[in-house]
Structures are given as C-alpha cells and as structure tokens.
Request: fold
Amino acid sequence: MTSISDLLGRDKSTLYRELQRNTGLKGYRPKQAHQMAQERSQRRTFTKWTQKVENYVACAVQLDFSPKKISKTMTLDNIEKVSHERIYQFLIEYMNEGGLLYKHLRIKGTNKNKKRYEKKDYRGQTPNRVDIDERPQIVEDRTRIGDWEADLVSGAHHKGF
Reply:
C-alpha cells in the first residue's frame, strides 16, 4: 500500500478507505467502484431556493417560528426542505436589503466576529463587594464571634509554607 500510495501521490489511508468502501463479494473491481462512486455523488441533490420556499419561510417567520422549526416542518407541508442555516442566510440577505423579517426572530444574533477583548471580563468578581479597608472599627477589636479571621491556605502535602 505504501509504494502504491507513493506512486499515485495519495496518502495510504485514502487507498485503504477506497478499498473498504468499494470492495464487493468478489473483491475490488474498478468499474464497479466507479459506478458506486457516481451513484454516491448523484445522491447529493441540493434544493434551490425557489419563490415557493421563500414565501413559506417569510410566512413562518412572521408567525414567530424559529428557523430550526421552519426547517423541520417544511417536509410535513410538502415543501422542499432547506437547512436552518440557509434560512438564516436568507434573513440576513433580506435584512441587508431593508427587510424587517429579522425582527421576528426570538433571539437576536450575536456578532461572531466581535473580539472578546473589547469587553471587560467580570467573571469571578463579587458584586457590591466592600473593600477590607472600609470595614468598621469594631471588627478590628475582634470582640464578637465572627470577627476572627484565619488563613485556610495550606501548602504542599499539608505542611504549610
């Protein structure tokens, strides 16, 4: 396999995959493999975005259906099914032309290209936290229960520092 793959300029895993996919009961036959490859390529039929599909999607969006829901119900209504991603693409194109269908979406889209460093990171911060320097003087006296503080950090193998 290695020498054949070197001659053909392909990876040997490609050859193994070809043999596994196209070997019949009588072994590997090139004509049969070619016919099977053509049948596989013909299975992929892409639906075109027709006026009927566009009208269906527009009506469903106006009824506040999500693109995923629209995509799943298209086959039930005998309409050629398109993916929810294609429906989102249509809504974006329609929005860029001045259409208002995008306002019927339940969740407003986020900008995937927005950089994370543009926003301050608030994770791990306690809201309305009072600084230790601003605590009352009575806490410094440690006369009440709960005013005592202890360091709970331990070192490696519980030995301290």
About this structure: The chain has a mean pLDDT of 83.
